[in-house]
Write a structure and sequence with these properties.
Chains A, B: Pfam families: DUF1611, DUF1611_N. Two copies of one chain form a homodimer. Chain A has about 350 residues and is α/β, with parallel strands linked by helices. The radius of gyration of chain A is 20 Å and the shape is globular. In chain A, the strands form three sheets. Chain A has a six-stranded parallel beta sheet with strand order 8-10-7-11-12-13, with helices on both faces. The first copy, chain A, contains eleven helices and 13 strands. At the A-B interface, α7, α8 and α9 of A face α7, α8 and α9 of B.
Chain lengths: ~350, ~350
């Protein structure tokens, strides 16, 4: 994964996070646990003033090391927990650093399963100092029931053959490409890391089912006719656990265009033993059939491959072949190049 | 709607409600607001010892009038709020009666939007007396993520061309018909009235989206190979607000057989102006396409019509015609008769 630094416009009228951030790394020793911090460095560099690691940490984002007080001096408004650990709990050893940040005038932002308010004493300390504890996994308290009313503006949704294969990165890359072309757009975040990057959004998997499509309608409100909302997809219509999330997001998003995200070589569904991955053709057909309900003009703009497991030649050959077969542009947004330009052009066509 | 009194087996390993009930009618003056009480009288008569109405009430279920103390003497274990009012709030004037019930040794059961614990003083009084306040709209605190693993036993799900057209009543009628034939079965409730009737279940529309299919898996666990779970459907795959709920329920239920519920004459979707009702054929095709993912053998067992707006001759003619066209049995379970027997037989075939 190479670094990207194009600006991602800040988004939704819902949660607005206090940016820029100081990235908190705790005492992390495995890069895999610092995925959130790396995502922010790669996609929201302008919103990160530096990193704060505890003694013992061996992983770094490469950003400047700052204490909370130094970060506050440089304009930071919050310290963001950029690291996960086994079980998603917040270790006792981090507590002093979190309180140090509150005392330095920073709010705290977390995407962990455990809530910040569950850390003993933290809520009292935040209240005393007038600081916020923000859990991005918590959806807005008041969400509407969807109406199905067609909204003004253009919308693109990333969908997938499965979970966790590049829907967020694809949406970010498309939003970046539109910005480079001078086209008005917003990246609309639907998961915790996306929300941290965008500075706002709705964690769609945490919304009560009755309000799922309504939350998606709220996430991409009426806009100028030429404005694009680039919406981060969730789950998959073919995932036995998460298809309901994907369908609510599809209906509420009313996309004009969708991109199917896929990881070549993946053959079984994540977390669902015995479930074969659907073909790209099946995903296109199901997305058109169901998406037509709220936007009769829905169409597939192309395919995004996550080819991180292949070398450049293999990737290029595979994408050319599959593009030929499908009659649609296939590109890896992380590799970019002319194939990706074609994908963007076809989405805008 | 005629009264039915066949036994509905008590269900899910999840919420178990304290039955039998005393039905609380408050000071209701419009029969429409007492829908819950009528549903319980019609479908769970054995679980209702009587009704308790306040001075001013003009609506009755026809059950014997009892005070909470008299009901407790006759074995009642809870008082159930069988009446709704505009806005779903619990009027101040009911408070004394609710406390009277707690003092008589009854738990309280409510399906209203407002929680029982929000009524000033009620939670303290219940705690003092060792009684429970049970809000059936609140799903279990711990729900699993769906695995998609195929479970043993047979399952039937009612689906619909829209909301609110007979999915609960159809499931109850099918469960009753199976019981009459001596076939082991459980009615599996997914909405508040159904849960009160069954004495257990999961309010599927109140579940967090990520756990929707997992909740449906939990609702109809492994059973004997010949056992039928008859699962109450929710929403519609074609409803722009609720399709995600319906898909999660479909995937998690893994039905072998589904029945499409429809109200002849309804042409637009409830609460979604501008949305035409899908045809029955479209609902069958979408349900098979999506349901196949977790049960490749899924099939349509027939169609349930809500013909309450037609006279008997019109209803019979219409159901015969449409059955011919669709090549499937069409029946109104409330009218019963040979058409309904055919529908049941085709589901079991």
């Amino acid at each position: 994964m190479t670094a990207h630094a194009h600006p991602i416009a800040s988004t939704a009228s819902t949660t607005m996070l206090p940016q820029p951030y100081l990235l908190f790394l705790g005492d992390v020793t495995e890069a895999g646990f610092a995925k959130t911090a790396f995502g922010l460095r790669d996609w929201a560099a302008d919103s990160c003033v530096g990193e704060y690691a505890l003694p013992g940490a061996t992983v770094s984002t490469g950003l400047v090391q700052l204490t909370p007080a130094q970060a506050a001096e440089r304009g930071a408004r919050s310290m963001l927990i950029g690291v996960a650990n086994q079980g998603g709990i917040i270790p006792q050893g981090w507590r002093a650093s979190l309180i140090e940040a509150l005392n330095a005038g920073l709010d705290l932002v977390s995407g962990m399963h455990a809530r910040l308010g569950e850390i003993p004493g933290l809520a009292d300390e935040a209240a005393r100092l007038g600081r916020q504890l923000i859990d991005v996994r918590v959806p807005p308290a008041t969400l509407p029931i969807a109406t199905g009313r067609k909204r003004v503006g253009k919308r693109l949704l990333t969908v997938g053959t499965d979970c966790a294969l590049g829907k967020k990165y694809t949406a970010l890359a498309i939003a970046g490409a539109l910005s480079e072309r001078g086209l008005a757009n917003n990246f609309r975040a639907t998961g915790q890391t996306g929300i941290m990057i965008a500075g706002g959004g709705i964690p769609m998997d945490a919304v009560v089912a009755d309000f799922e499509a309504g939350a998606a309608e709220m996430l991409s409100p009426d806009a100028d006719p030429d404005h694009w909302d680039i919406i981060e997809g969730q789950g998959s219509l073919f995932h036995p656990a998460y298809a309901g999330v994907s369908l609510g997001l599809l209906h509420g998003s009313q996309p004009d265009v969708f991109i199917v995200c896929h990881e070549p070589g993946r053959t079984t569904v994540l977390g669902a033993p015995g479930y074969d991955l659907p073909s790209i053709e099946e995903v296109i057909a199901a997305t058109v059939m169901l998406g037509r309900r709220t936007n009769p003009d829905i169409r597939c703009g192309g395919i995004s491959y996550n080819t991180s497991g292949l070398d450049a030649d293999e990737a290029d050959r595979l994408m050319a072949e599959d593009g030929e077969r499908l009659g649609l542009p296939v590109a890896d947004p992380i590799r970019g190049g002319p194939a990706f330009d074609k994908l963007v052009a076809n989405c805008l066509a």
